[in-house]
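Re: How this chain folds, sequence and tokenised backbone to follow

Filed under: protein folding, tokenised backbone structure, sequence and structure records.

Contents: The amino acid chain and a row of whole-number tokens, matched residue for residue.

Body of memo: The sequence and its backbone structure tokens, given next.
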Amino acid sequence: MRLVLVAIAALVVTPLLTMLLVIARLFRVPDRAGSVYDDIPRWWAKSLLWVAGADVRVAGAEHTAGDAPRIFVGNHVSWFDVLASAAVLPRGKYVAKAELFRIPVFGQAIRWIGMVPIDRGNRKAAFGSLERAAAKIREGNSVVVFPEGTRGAEYALRSFKKGPFVLAITAGVPVVPMVIHGTFERMRKGSWAIKPGVIEVTFLDPIPTAEYAYDDRGRLVEVVRSRMSAVLREKYGVEERLNAGGDR
């Protein structure tokens, strides 16, 4: 029943907010901090979360404040990871799988908002996506990435792609680890069932990248991943899996 309600809400809210985007583009509203381009993803996410009965709680919100660009790196086990993070982040352009951009109406809307498509099956195209993400950072935007690539079947972290960390080092912006918990219980991979409940989003201390060079990208991956894993273990009892680290 929840799935039907959320689907109806998406069918109603998405076209309405897309029309607002169309108006913003017609009037050449600039995409800057606090603009409608930041508000629309948050309104969309909060609407669907409300219908789904999901209560999002935030820790470490101070690490999202300010206009300085950052790269937010989160774990990924559910579609609700995107909704929960979009609902609480003041500004951020997502790097998302290319298939989403082919969905009628929705795909055009997220492109206008400034989201970046990535073709995970094409290494060359993936590098091009990171270049577009770098351009977003140069424009003053923060970027949101799920470096595990796809949704997992449990909270234990899987290996991280190194691309987002190369992006952080090249752009010279800090990485803010983001631990999301409760989304797996709301809607897990392979299931159509949606269950109401609490989602917790924890933002950790930013990790400066000034001391890292390209050859240090693996070290940066391990620093970020270990801090996220520590929170999952200490706060939620999620144990590390053997041979889960490194780049795929």
